[in-house]
Amino acid sequence: MQMTTADVEHVARLARLEFTSGEKELFAGQMAAILGYVEKLKELNTDGIVPTSHAVPMENAFREDVVRPSIGQENALRNAPDRDGSFFAVPKVIE
Questions:
Q1: Is the dihedral of CA 38, 42, 45, 51 positive or negative?
Q2: Count of domains in the chain?
Q3: Domain that holds residue 30
Q4: How far apart (Å, rounded) are the C-alpha atoms in residues 50 and 41?
Q5: pLDDT tops 80 at residue 61
Q6: Looking at residue 30, which CATH number applies to its domain?
Q7: Which one, of 1, 19, 32, lies nearest residue 10 by Cα?
Q8: Given this model, what pLDDT does residue 37 score?
Q9: Quick one: which of 69, 73, 71, 70 has its CA closest to 85?
Q10: Is residue 21 included in any domain, yes or no?
Q11: Which of 6, 35, 60, 79 has the most CB atoms around its CB within 10 Å?
Q12: How does DSSP assign the chain, residue by residue?
């Protein structure tokens, strides 16, 4: 599949990334190679393969859910870089 620098610019805009023109050319080639490989994988016969199968046997390691006392508000905020009363203070991220 052929990728253009416009495709890279679109993905970069979605991810809020900025690239130089050289990087856009490089990434267009790399993205085309990745999508080409995915197309090749689509040729594999996967009939009878369970979607969640693994190469090695997998088991969940469940443990009993035990109620324990919490660490408390002061201990939780002790190493906070900034706090506002009894809350973590974080920078505003919404523009």
A1: positive
A2: 1
A3: 5-40
A4: 16
A5: no
A6: 1.10.20
A7: 19
A8: 95
A9: 73
A10: yes
A11: 35
A12: ----HHHHHHHHHHTT----HHHHHHHHHHHHHHHHHHHHHTTS--TT--TT--SS----------------HHHHHTT-SSEETTEE-------
pLDDT score for 22:
95
The structure tokens listed for 92 are 């505003």
Helix axes 21-41, 5-14, angle to 10 degrees: 90
91: pLDDT strictly greater than 80? yes
- 23 domain residue, yes or no: yes
Q: Are 28 and 4 in contact (CB under 8 A)?
A: yes
Residue 53 clears pLDDT 90, i.e. is over it? no
> In angstroms, what CA-CA distances link 63 with 57, 59, 67?
19, 12, 12
pLDDT > 90: what percent of the chain?
Answer: 67
Across 39-65, average pLDDT: 83
b or e along 36-70 (b: 16 or more beta carbons within 10 Å of the residue's beta carbon)? eeeeeeeeeeeeeeeeeeeeeeeeeeeeeeeeeee
Q: Does the pLDDT at position 94 exceed 90?
A: no
